[in-house]
Amino acid sequence: MPAAAPVLDRLADHRLVPVVVIDDAADADALGAALVAGGLPVAEVTFRTDAAADAIRVLRDRGDVLVGAGTVLTAAQVDQAVAAGADYVVSPGTSRAVVERCAEHGVLALPGAVTATEVQAALELGVTTVKFFPAGTSGGAPAIAALAAPFGGVRFVPTGGVGPSNLADYLALPSVVAVGGSWMVPRDVVRARDTAALRALVADAVALATRLRPT
User: Fold this and answer.
1) d(Cα 110, Cα 99) in Å, to the nearest integer?
2) Which of 113, 136, 175, 195 is deepest in the core (most CB within 10 A)?
3) 86-98 pLDDT, tens digit each
4) pLDDT-derived band of residue 2, with 50, 70 and 90 as boundaries?
5) pTM over 0.85
């Protein structure tokens, strides 16, 4: 299991985190192939379906995808995710039980935080990088910039309502490590196992993020 710091570094290198809902674990290998071919070998598989743990296992077994578990709400789900091979765990909010269980397993925890109080709660748990979710309805890039002022050591992974039209706003912020989004991995296309379509969407997203990279 990769250590938390190197995993965060890899997320920062890629700048984009595809957030994917998988209805059938049998769809995961085609997704993984598309992500790798498109130049973005990263996936956050959300625990919104019963197939999540098995899908994580399929992606992990490929050996070429950095795979995380998203929408993790309980310590038991952390156990499931880690047993399946998740490299990191993402929560919509800050849960002491989830963060502490991640620490026990030695995996990176990215809990959600969108207010100063929530950021401080995360800091008290030893977390210095948080998921800013839902970004679009929580003030977006300006809100992150405002929070980064008093919390200079905190970094953010905005997710929710992020897409090609506003990606630049988030990636321009020094406090943003990476941005999570689902526009390059639509649920219906994943379900169809349309590797070519997924690869094209992923490649377009990578190209956009590359153009937005500071020179």
Assistant:
1) 8
2) 113
3) 999 999 999 999 9
4) low
5) yes
Q: Residue 99 in 3-state DSSP?
A: helix
Does 39 score more than 90 pLDDT?
yes
- How long is the chain? 215
Which amino acid type is present at position 186?
P
Check: CB of residue 164 under 8 Å from CB of residue 184.
no
d(CA 79, CA 74): 9
Which one from 100, 104, 118, 131 is the annotated catalytic residue?
131
Inform me whether the pLDDT recorded for 1 exceeds 60.
no
Residue showing tokens 């937005």: 212
Q: Is the dihedral of CA 44, 49, 52, 58 positive or negative?
A: negative
Closest CA to 111 of 87, 130, 134, 88: 130
44 among known catalytic residues: yes
* Amino acid at residue number 76: A
Reported in sequence order, the residue ranges of 51-138 that DSSP labels E, i.e. its strands, are 66-70, 88-90, 108-110, 129-132
Q: Residue 100 catalytic?
A: no
Given 44, 100, 104, 118, which residue is catalytic? 44
